[in-house]
Amino acid sequence: MIDASPRSTPSSARPLVTLDNVAVRFAGEEVLSRISLTLHAGRIVTLIGPNGAGKSTLARVVLGIITPHAGTVQRHGSLRIGYMPQRIKVDDSLPLTVDGFLALAMSGRSRERRAALARVGVKHLHKRPVQQLSGGEMQRVLLARALLRKPDLLVLDEPAQGVDVAGQNALYGLLDEVRQEFGCGILLISHDLHLVMAATDEVICLHHHICCSGTPEAVTRDPVFHDMFAGHPAANLALYTHEHDHEHTLHGDVDAPGHQHGDECGGGKHDH
Amino acid sequence: MIIELLLAPLAAGLAVAVVAGPMGSFVVWRRMAFFGDTLAHGALLGAAFGLAVGISLYPAVVLCCLVLALTLVALQQQQHLAGDTLLGIVAHTTLALGIIAVSLLPTVQVDLFGFLFGDLLAVSGRDVAWLWGGTFFILLLTALNWRRLLSITVNEELARIEGINITATRTLLMLMLALLIAGAIRTVGVLLITSLLIIPAASARRLTRTPVQMAALASLIGSIAVFGGLLLSWHADTPVGPSIVVSAAGLFIVTLLLPRRS
Q1: Which residues of B fall within a CB distance of 8 Å from A125?
Q2: Percentage of chain A surpassing pLDDT 90?
Q3: Tell me: the pLDDT tens digits for B225-240?
Q4: Are B41 and B95 a contacting pair, CB within 8 Å?
């Protein structure tokens, strides 16, 4: 189990959310079990794991959307959460500009909303109907909406999806800035290992339970991690480099080959 | 004078049309058309109930619609059957019960045709005052809760994370809609009320770029439809409720010919 206090954790870091021995079941099937972790202010934690491993479910427990069947979720103080979902669909019948969409998050001034859009690099979308945004543009707008709330904790579900490599670099750079400016904790969900590894303080490797966790260096050396992402270039990647030593698809997604699990990760079902 | 004869019906119709703009927009955005139908059917049951226990018609209809709305909110929390299936069960059951109840009354005092298709020409000055009172009440509630209502309509998950009570907001919307429908029964009737909610809002969609614009334009289009329907009814001696709906539909077709704004 993870104590989430690897060497780089400053002892002064404020805890935001603590999960203790959390389990979640859907239709009788255990999707998450024995999950214990703490998210701290100013720290970036990345959840990685194969599709269907329960990453989004875990994020939703942290967000308070899902109530776990067992275990406890403790939120420390009044926690303001910003959430960037993978995608949202706004009904075509609703005429809504990007500015109107942002105004829903917080009744702030128009200037603040423009500044938030400029910050994520999509200032020009201000007046665009939300239905006309591409996937990547919508994600930027969702991030702007999350930032407008000046969050204590920022949760991002697959932020690199549909964004090209240069865009991913910019995004992770932005997250680092945001963390320093707001002092907020960040929980990232990803199945894309490459850049995440360089941009995170702590990695949690999830497959229905926490298989391994720690600093990126520690996790990449963990045999469980290697079993889980066998053949994936990131597993052999020198840390904190941004060389592109593997194929990207048209959308900037890493073409991840199949994965295997060690005994520790057995018992789960494969969705690949 | 035409004007004097039509003044009360016009004022009543406009009261409904004005509030139907924003409410109808929510119905369109949230795909709740069938919900409006179900409530309208329940109104008939309310009327029969009111006659049976000897209380006046309007409070009985309002009460029945509000109770029905709460029941529907509660039913929607369960996951086994799709929303439209549940609504279908409730709508047709209440309609059947309403008609049976009406038929069992010793002397039929309910103008069934009036309930089904509206009886706008029979409204009194007192009715008009009540309708406008209800309209302002609903508009005020909508304005005060606008951001919340819109937020759960755009995305419930984000709204919830941002601290909005989804169930309370959704219930508020349902109750406002129930109140509107109970009040509107007299104007266009059970069978046509949904169209007065949906057609003006749908007409406004192509011509607007923000939710507020759409709601306001829907109110305007509804008002023109009421006006046009009364004129049609007066000149061609057609039933008022259907005339209003037909003129709304005519306006909808006209908007299809206009260039789209967003």
Answers
A1: none
A2: 17
A3: 999 999 999 899 998 8
A4: yes
